[in-house]
Amino acid sequence: MNYRTRIRAVREDRDLTQKQIGEVLQKSQQGYNHIEDGRAELKIDDLKRLCLFYNMSADYLIVLTDIEKPLE
């Protein structure tokens, strides 16, 4: 699994749309779609926003661990 698959799975598990996450990241739906599809890279600032929004560690989102941990 790569981080693109993980962030998509987390989004879908929470029944969120790409448009909703795009708004969290201050991007269009298409801009966020490009991240999930591999046409754009996930920037550190966007990773930080996702961690805060989902309340989970960056390690989980970027697949350094399979243990879903909340932020400390």
What does this structure look like?
- The structure is a single chain.
- The chain is 58% helix and 0% strand.
- The chain has 72 residues and is mainly α.
- It has a single domain (3-61), classed as 434 Repressor (Amino-terminal Domain).
- The radius of gyration is 11 Å and the shape is globular.
Summarize the structure.
By secondary structure, the protein is mainly alpha-helical.
CATH superfamily: lambda repressor-like DNA-binding domains
Fraction of residues in H or I helices: 55-70%
- Largest pleated sheet: none
Distance between the termini: 25 Å
Overall residue-averaged pLDDT value: 97
Total number of helices: 5
Name the features.
434 Repressor (Amino-terminal Domain); single chain; 72 residues; 0% strand; 5 helices
Explain the layout of strands and helices.
Elements: H1 3-13, H2 18-24, H3 29-37, H4 44-54, H5 58-61
